Amino acid sequence: MKNYQVMLTKSYVVTVEAQNATRARYCAEFYTGDISDISIDEDKKQHGFKIKEIECVVNDGFEAKEIIDD
């Protein structure tokens, strides 16, 4: 079988409980990674937020190229 390197783009809808929209946006951008909540309890307490749900809504591959082994 051949090997391929696939370039992906992903978008998420993140539901965050926070003090305000600015804080929710900041926490969603900073504390999410690869469909998981990477925040720790200390982060949640310090910034007053809780990520309740992360839903992948777009997952499209846009390029695939064969990798040639030398």
From TrEMBL:
Q: What is this protein called?
A: Uncharacterized protein
